[in-house]
Amino acid sequence: MLFKNCLINGVKADIAVKNGVITDGEYDGGVKDCGGLAAFYGLFDMHCHLRDPGFTEKETVESGLLSAAKGGFTAVMPMPNTDPVCDNPETVKYILDKAEKCGVKVYPIAAATAGQKGETVTDLAALTASGAVAFSDDGRPVVNDAVALKVMSEACRLGSFYISHCETPSLNKDGVVTPASEEAMIERECLLAFSTASRVHIAHVSTAGGAEIIRRYKSLGARVTAETCPHYFCFTAADAGENTNFKMNPPLRGESDRLAIIGALQDGTIDVISTDHAPHTDAEKAKPYKDAPNGIIGFETAFAAAYTALVSSGAVTLSKLTEILAAPYKITGKKGGKIAAGMPADLVFIDLDEKFVYGREEIRSKSHNSPFIGKTLTGRVKFTVSDGKTVY
Ligand SMILES: [Zn+2]
Q1: Disulfide: which of 73, 160, 335, 384 matches 155 by Cβ 3.0-4.6 Å?
Q2: How far is the CA of 1 from the centre of ligand 1 (A)?
């Protein structure tokens, strides 16, 4: 296929694809006029929940990947809090088998500890051999210092890495992760990584203090990477009210935190924007605010939310956003992230001028728990290509 007349970082270009790979000009199949759409390398989500196996009333591998493709994602990393927990090679294989037919690459994250109980480190070598690309007990912190250190250093030895959901249960208030709860654990993870020269990736940073801790350790040379999610730079606690579609963990913070998260993206303290796509059924989210589960869906709004809040607002340049979107490829070592000859033809074509109101009826996820419903966003994904094939 030859994708004619697209814009790469604002510059007019054609993209030639042969056998699912980007080439210098040779192509197979037909010619598609992209009409001036912006082309980006396929988006890569380092943090999502596909809910399969075990919670398929919320999402399945198939429905989750349809939703991901609609959002422009060609690669996703699902968290292991399924049932059974993804702490064994069989469950990794189950997810990979289901994903194979879906046209979006899936790189499973396996549990760091058996049953995500924080006690016994899983067989990281066997899990890596079966296809797990990273380790995390997301949703639960690994409280025990020695266990966390063991996961971090063993994962690192295997060429893999540990992703930390940062909370300190004793510092939570009424079950809610306070800034101190989040920041105390970020500090510990950074310190352990620094003192042992291990890698750690900090999940969903939500506070100014958390970003500042990461900034300090990065300046010391610690092997720390970090992510935030669109909701932490689009909304604050004041937007939530009693609407359970704004309830997630960590929770929305204050305006100074929101601005600090944008600052941390600007200066590279936070490397990645992930979605933390976390589907829940309408019935679960219809519960009173205090009883409703944490989590919101995010695949289908991630790009537009980031483009609207960061680029349209003037906070971040288009080329900086492009760099942020490519960061997961660097962190995981997966081939891609750049529209260049030899790279897999994973591409997303976006109308950066299109303003739209995100509607419940267009959602492809099995769940509808999005705080962006009814919000006006700029930057509409038009089609997504994975290994040269159109998947949305
Ligand atoms: Zn988490």
Answers
A1: 160
A2: 39
